[in-house]
Amino acid sequence: MINLHGVSLQQGGRELLQSADCRIFPGHKVGIIGANGCGKSTLFRLLLGRLDSDAGRVEVPTGWRISHMAQEVEATDRSALDYVLDGDAELRQLQRAIDAAEQAAPADGQRLAELHERMAAIDGYSGPARAAQLLDGLGFSHRDQQRPVSSFSGGWRIRLNLGRALMCPADLMLLDEPTNHLDLDATLWLEQWLQRFPGTLLIISHDRDFLDAVVDGIISFEQAQLVHYSGNYSAFERARGERLAQQQAQHEKQQAQRAHMEDFVRRFRAKATKARQAQSRLKALDRMAQTAPAHVDSPFRFTLPAAEKNSDPLIDLRDADIGYGENPVLRRVQLGIQPGRRIGLLGPNGAGKSSLIKTLAGELAPVAGERLCGEHLAIGYFAQHQLEALDINASPVLHLQRLTPQASEQSLRDFLGGYGFAGDRAFESVAGFSGGEKARLALAILAWQRPNLLLLDEPTNHLDLEMRHALTLALAEFPGAVVLVSHDRHLLANTVDEFILVADGRAAPFDGDLEDYKQWLLAFNREQRRRDESTDADSRPAEDKKEQRRAAAALREKLKPLTNRLKQVEKQMAAAEKSLKQLEAQLADESLYSGGQQEEIARLNRAQAEQREQLETLELEWLEISETLEQARDQ
């Protein structure tokens, strides 16, 4: 088990941990949460042995294999597939050893047999296929898997780092914000993969639905301590809310927030239709009202004001072809955005969600068709790369002063305080800000302009759980129109009333909720894999395919005696294992040892030894035949 006992740590003059204790048992999946800068990533460095604590002990079982998701990726010319496969260091080491042994003169047959036996034991021969499956789940096409790592953007390189960490056989896996650069379909795939992971898992994440689906415990950084909660993130919220309720100083504030949320749910219920999406949002808002007390001490509290004037519609896309050049990704899109309309965009990676939002924002002109804007349209657009547009030499106050020179400094400071820029922080240079702080500032700038249409493309990247909660509350009550792309299902469920599915070149209403979309996505991915396999097969020249079939038939015929013998050995192994289990069951019977049955005990022991010897002989033969077949097929 992992044991932190009396651990204290200071960095940059800040006390991150003070005599903190924590135990994590083998096989547990634990979410690590806390405000940005509290020390979550530093905890990982302690566990990896890359940092020493100022006091106390950090104990990780000796011999545990640790997989860690790096945050930086070198610009290498290795293919994406090879880069991910490198995550299994033992497999790569065995491959090099086998190559060296085969090239040695004279060849060492015994050494080669031992290496191949070890390769089979770690399932190394399936390594390339497993790496390709990981990349496929993370959104890389078959063609992308052969591209050099240096050709991918920063976000996609982070995905490669995640794939490399998943490829590594591990007793302990440490993942730091694994969903930050994933879209919803890749997040759902990762969720299912981690649910099957048999080892100990520690995840730093600000995605509450992701944590709910994966973890069975939460470790929360609270006042330089590590507080352990049983259950998933929702259970943590309930437990923390109950604990805070016992503190009188928080009680009135807590009750006021609960009353506010419950009043909002009642107002929404009064105007909600019976549509499944609206009912799903009602349930989500109800849950949010119940867990609101867990966030009463959040430093973030703000609203999103909207423009007073509106047009109807705000934007109207008519027969719009959307994309770049002569091959648009979406065709004949019909979409009118009326005041108050709240839309979530769903769809697989690369289907055109971001292109549709860019077209609505006016950053991408339609290839064909029309984009008509209302007279009073005021857009607030948060793009995936919005942080790069900030002036790193300017302060948060200066960013807003440039938009509204006549605004008083106090009004700017009051406004920025809700986004976590209180006191002197409002005058600090953006250059020293973290990714989360830059994201908060970008949202503040957007809100300051009082839009009546919010276009949000992955707005929660880099935001911690408290800021995501504050944004969810603000968006839920925003009176204007919203179009949202997000992998954060909690944000989608609580802020939009309808979904549009972007897939197969179309943007059409989706009649269902997020659970329905999950099922649709699984079916879509199965169909896509079937199409890819069919395309790969059809793309080969007819002569090549004919020759491949002829060669494959000849190889099967040549290997038929070995294949038949392998099947016989497998049947004999199954029979031997069955007999061995029966003998072990007889030997485990307590009545056998009641007296007078010494000959029977001796007979059963002899039979057990013979069966074990026979099984070992069969296993050795099976291994030799398998290696021979593998080598013949690879030639």
Structure keywords:
Rossmann fold, 49% helix, six-stranded mixed sheet, 4 domains, globular
Describe the protein.
- 49% of the residues lie in helices and 17% in strands.
- The chain has 635 residues and is of the alpha/beta class.
- A 6-stranded mixed beta sheet has the order 5-6-7-3-8-9, sandwiched between helices.
- Helix 3 packs antiparallel against helix 4.
- It starts with a strand and ends with a helix.
- The mean pLDDT is 82.
CATH architect. name of the largest domain = 3-Layer(aba) Sandwich
**Proportion of residues in helical segments:** 40-55%
What percentage of amino acids are in beta strands?
15-25%
Outline the biggest β-sheet.
6 strands, mixed
CATH superfamily of the largest domain: P-loop containing nucleotide triphosphate hydrolases
Termini separation: 46 Å
Number of domains: 4
Average of the residue pLDDT scores: 82
Quote the CATH topology of the largest domain.
Rossmann fold
CATH class of the largest domain: Alpha Beta
- Spatial strand arrangement across the major sheet: 5-6-7-3-8-9
**Alpha-beta content class:** alpha/beta
Q: Low-confidence segments, ≥5 residues, pLDDT <50?
A: none
**Could you say which overall geometry the principal axes of the C-alpha atoms support?**
globular
How many individual β-strands? 18
DSSP helix count? 20
The gyration radius over C-alpha positions equals 30 Å
Task: Itemize the secondary structure elements and their pairings.
Layout: E1 2-11, E2 14-24, E3 29-33, H1 40-47, E4 55-59, E5 66-68, H2 80-85, H3 89-103, H4 109-121, H5 127-137, H6 154-167, E6 172-176, H7 184-196, E7 200-204, H8 208-214, E8 217-222, E9 225-230, H9 233-245, H10 248-271, H11 276-291, E10 315-322, E11 330-337, E12 342-346, H12 353-361, E13 368-373, E14 379-382, H13 396-403, H14 409-417, H15 435-448, E15 453-457, H16 465-477, E16 481-485, H17 489-495, E17 498-503, E18 506-510, H18 514-538, H19 542-587, H20 598-634
Parallel strand pairs: 3-7, 3-8, 5-6, 6-7, 12-16, 12-17, 14-15, 15-16
Antiparallel strand pairs: 1-2, 1-4, 8-9, 10-11, 10-13, 17-18
Helix pairs in contact: 3-4, 5-6, 10-11, 11-17, 13-14, 16-17, 19-20
